[in-house]
Amino acid sequence: MSQTVDRALSILPLLAEGPADLGQVAERLGVHKSTALRLLRTLHEHGMVYRQSDQRYRLGARLIALAQEAMENLDIREIAHPHLVRLNEQCGHTVHLAVYEEDEVLYIDKVESRYPVRMYSRIGKPVAITVAAVAKLLLADLPEHERRALADKLDYPMYTARSTPNPDAFLKELAKVREQGWATDLGGHEESINCVAAPIRGADGRVVAAMSVSAPNVVVTADELLTLLPLVRRTADGISGEYSGRNTAKQ
Fold first, then answer.
1. How many degrees, rounded to 5, is the angle at CA 205 between CA 72 and CA 143?
2. Per UniProt, which keywords does this protein have (predicted)?
3. CA 108 to chain centre
4. CA 106, CA 124: separation in Å to the nearest integer?
5. What are phi and psi of 112, to 5 degrees?
6. How many Cβ atoms sit within 10 Å of the Cβ of residue 187?
7. Beta-carbon count within 10 A of 143 CB
8. Are 69 and 62 within 8 A, CB to CB?
9. Distances (CA, A) of 155 to 81, 127, 165
10. How many CB atoms lie within 10 A of CB 192?
């Protein structure tokens, strides 16, 4: 029975590459055509595959609907939280998780620093969208026309001398973040606070959330905080792996 299940499941990634006929399925599985046909018929009965008019098989609508439903029911905060706690235990600094919703970037989780100096960010509170490292990651992943449209309608408050001053500068920063795959806020919102962030990606590679580590200058310098980037990125990759169903990255 386990071998039958294994063979049936092996058909799905093959069809994800594109439609295939009975011979191709049998060859990939290393079985006789009659065996492959039985497996395909069973999958077809459950809506997991669909036989086209040219007798080739493709993934079925039922499978796609189940995948979509599963993704909609995933709670990124629940998945990410243990990883955020572990990161906090390793570095001691404040850790945030943020998402992009309706033109706002919101913190949805926070693990407090172990140090006496605390940040005043709150879960559910929008971030300073033009300077926050998590916001840069989330917005950098948007299609170009959406990035430009958003940049043109934002205000650009000068929180500090390092704040993003205008749409052109913001789009340039987003392009840089998109290319390098991580982001920083080095005194852009508060002179004394620095932050480094990494993206969390879904199965399709799109950024679904962003996480960051933040600390005041009195605890660590900006350069010292940047040395944590590999750890932050490994943590984000671990969350991404668990969220998307891939193997999680080792911490």
1. 95
2. DNA-binding, Transcription, Transcription regulation
3. 14
4. 6
5. -70, 150
6. 19
7. 8
8. no
9. 32, 13, 9
10. 12
> Is 58 buried (19+), middle (13-18) or exposed (0-12) by CB count in 10 A?
middle
Residue from 249, 128, 100, 231 nearest 188 by CA: 128
* 164 in Cβ contact with 131 (< 8 Å): yes
Q: What is the pLDDT along the chain (251 residues), one digit of tens a residue?
A: 678 888 888 999 899 889 999 999 999 999 999 999 999 999 999 889 999 999 999 998 888 777 666 655 558 899 999 999 999 999 999 999 999 987 889 998 999 998 877 666 778 788 999 999 999 999 999 999 999 999 999 999 999 999 999 999 999 999 999 999 999 999 999 999 999 999 999 988 999 999 999 999 999 999 999 999 999 999 999 999 999 877 544 44
Neighbours of 142 (CB within 10 A): 18
Q: What is the torsion angle, in degrees rounded to the nearest 10, for the CA atoms of residue 96, residue 97, residue 101 and residue 104?
A: 20
Distance, in Å, from the CA atom of 3 to the CA atom of 35, rounded to the nearest integer, reads 12
Q: CA 209 → CA 5, 47, 90, 156, 233, distances in Å? A: 34, 32, 21, 23, 13
The token duo for 102 is 């309706």
CA–CA distance, 32 with 171 (Å, rounded to integer): 56
Residue 123 C-alpha from the chain's centroid: 19
Q: Which amino acid appears at position 97 of this protein?
A: L
> How far is C-alpha 69 from the geometric centre of its chain's CA atoms?
18
Cα Rg of the chain (Å, integer): 23
Residues in the chain: 251
